[in-house]
Structure to design on (618 residues):
């Protein structure tokens, strides 16, 4: 190489500490592997240190072999194993069929390189993080004063951004090193997960995860043995985003929040894929990060639709790329997906090694609501009083409860005093009491569900809860509810599926048996009694093959979109009607029992009934 070219490359290295350290790392790896500096007769693979940017090593590789990175014609002798997706073949992921002319391949982790490509290489080398000598040299070439050997050794164990910041800092003593330590700590506002009420099932997993992460950080556990990703589902307001933030705080990791909608809004297909990949790259710095992906159901599914459907082809590409990113995560990355519609997620996303844990978050019950209020008031109001307040906040999410306390504090500040119980009471929604006749109807409805569930063997016990009032500001509300201790049914049969439909229709049938007419409370929304019964019937005849003539029309997930042929829709309706007639007859025979159980529910508000036993107040 001409001396002038050598000087020019050296000047570029001196101006860019990241590129210089990458260059020194590549040279050291070559020497330790016994490889010549000029690669000939094949190619070598460099795996960069965890958390270091692969593009810095790509630039340094050009300096290593004397190639000009700024040539008009893109070179193919130095490549990234999995570069950002752009138009042009030279930016495609490496395969064994694209090795012609290759001299150096740069990979962020060894899994980016197919096994056959690894086999074909002259050498596979893992580049070490910068040594103390490299850091001393980088500061000296940058015109910075020398630092102690102790501090240089310490910096060698830090992430790339911390190392570069330390090299660029004019004076770097003990005080500045302490500041760097603080910069490395994740800056997450809010509480740790284990300080919060609720999330009980997910906390069990998170406790084990925290222990495994600590072992991994100490070098006692390989990351591949850490079960590190999960899916959260539940209605809006159940605290999915809050959970991810609190988990990151508990694990002392950075939190990276994104949504599938953000990726889509980046532009065309290539832009969306690059936005998605950038999020994973940001998380993959080797230090540990919680990557929270909301609206994950919007990623699409690999459905059995026509391969010629351009929209379906688009989503297949997006989903396949997403699955690849999930499967090739670097160490220390925990992915938390969130959705309101878990049934819309492709099964491949939930397989082992991807989002393998699934937690369903529900709106908090009365006790949990009181605990959430207690957390936000910092213990300034007696817990017993908060339990009373929580009674009138049925259906409120954790976020809504936090806002209630925030508004109550504002009211107290206006009067220049501390928060008091009356401030919380002033924020309670207006409640309208049910008339006695309406309460009895609610109780009869739930009694129908409970009695039929025990009679057909759907449950071993049932607990009825009846409300005496409702929130006038709510768009929807539950006047009554029945909880079940379900009978195990790991292999549903035609009979047990029909029993599920019967239980769903029993509330409406009980109203008809007792009052001679029915309320609208059994239908109207997704998840209602009639919708649930109809959905099961459609699955039976259109997907499970359990109709009068076995046939498969579509998967369970696709039935909601495409519906059923008219003749099968008629059969599904007849199944629902048949089960309604069945339970109406059952409850008419047990009319006195229905009314007695409903009266107990009205008087006690909560009643538990077990198979073969009398009802007792819960």
């Amino acid at each position: 190489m001409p001396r002038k070219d050598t000087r020019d490359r050296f000047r570029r290295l001196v101006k860019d500490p990241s590129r210089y350290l990458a260059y020194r790392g590549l040279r050291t790896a070559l020497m330790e592997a016994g490889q010549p500096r000029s690669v000939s007769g094949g190619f070598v693979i460099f795996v960069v240190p965890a958390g270091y940017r692969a593009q810095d090593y790509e630039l340094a590789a050009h300096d290593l072999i004397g190639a000009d990175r700024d040539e008009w014609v893109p070179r193919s002798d130095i490549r990234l194993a999995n570069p950002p997706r752009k138009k042009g073949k030279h930016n495609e992921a490496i395969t064994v069929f694209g090795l012609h002319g290759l001299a150096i391949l740069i990979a962020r982790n060894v899994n980016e390189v197919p096994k056959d490509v690894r086999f074909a290489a002259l050498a596979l080398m893992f580049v070490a993080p910068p040594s103390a000598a490299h850091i001393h040299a980088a500061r000296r070439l940058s015109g910075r004063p020398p630092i102690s050997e102790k501090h240089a050794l310490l910096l060698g164990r830090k992430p790339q951004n911390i190392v570069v910041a330390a090299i660029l800092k004019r004076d770097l003593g003990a005080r500045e090193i302490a500041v760097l330590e603080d910069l490395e700590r994740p800056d997450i506002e809010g509480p740790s997960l284990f300080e919060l009420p609720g999330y009980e099932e997910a906390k069990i997993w998170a406790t084990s995860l925290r222990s495994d992460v600590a072992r991994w950080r100490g070098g006692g556990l390989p990351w591949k043995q850490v079960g590190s990703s999960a899916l959260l589902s539940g209605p809006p307001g159940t605290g999915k985003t809050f959970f991810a933030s609190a988990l990151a705080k508990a694990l002392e990791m950075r939190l990276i929040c994104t949504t599938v909608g953000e990726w889509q809004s980046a532009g065309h297909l290539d832009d969306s894929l690059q936005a998605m990949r950038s999020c994973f790259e940001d998380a993959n710095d080797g230090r540990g990060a919680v990557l929270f992906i909301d609206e994950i159901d919007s990623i699409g599914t690999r459905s059995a639709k026509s391969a010629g459907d351009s929209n379906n082809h688009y989503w297949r590409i997006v989903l396949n790329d997403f699955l690849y990113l999930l499967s090739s995560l670097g160490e220390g990355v925990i992915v938390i997906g969130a959705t309101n519609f878990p049934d819309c997620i492709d099964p491949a996303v939930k397989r082992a090694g991807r989002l393998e844990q699934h937690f369903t978050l529900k709106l908090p019950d009365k006790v949990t609501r009181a605990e959430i209020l207690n957390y936000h008031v910092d213990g300034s109001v007696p817990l017993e009083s908060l339990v009373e307040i929580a009674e009138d906040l049925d259906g409120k999410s954790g976020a809504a409860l936090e806002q209630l306390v925030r508004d109550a504090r504002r009211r107290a500040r206006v009067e220049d005093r501390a928060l008091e119980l009356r401030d919380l009471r002033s924020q309670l929604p207006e409640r309208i009491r049910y008339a006695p006749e309406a309460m009895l109807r609610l109780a009869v409805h739930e009694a129908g569900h409970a009695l039929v569930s025990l009679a057909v063997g759907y449950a071993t016990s049932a607990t009825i809860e009846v409300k005496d009032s409702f929130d006038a500001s709510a768009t929807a509300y539950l006047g009554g509810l029945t909880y079940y201790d379900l009978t195990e049914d790991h292999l549903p049969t035609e009979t047990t599926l029909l029993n599920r439909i019967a239980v769903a229709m029993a509330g409406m049938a009980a109203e008809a048996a007792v009052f001679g007419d029915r309320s609208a409370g059994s239908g109207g929304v997704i998840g209602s009694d009639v919708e649930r019964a109809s959905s099961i019937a459609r699955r039976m005849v259109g997907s499970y093959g359990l109709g009068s003539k076995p046939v498969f029309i579509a998967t369970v997930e696709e039935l909601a979109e495409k519906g059923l042929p008219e003749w099968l829709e008629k059969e599904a309706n007849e199944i629902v009607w048949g089960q309604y007639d069945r339970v109406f007859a059952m409850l008419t025979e047990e009319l006195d029992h229905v009314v007695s159980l409903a009266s107990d529910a009205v008087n006690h508000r909560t009643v538990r009934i077990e198979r073969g036993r009398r009802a007792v107040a819960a």
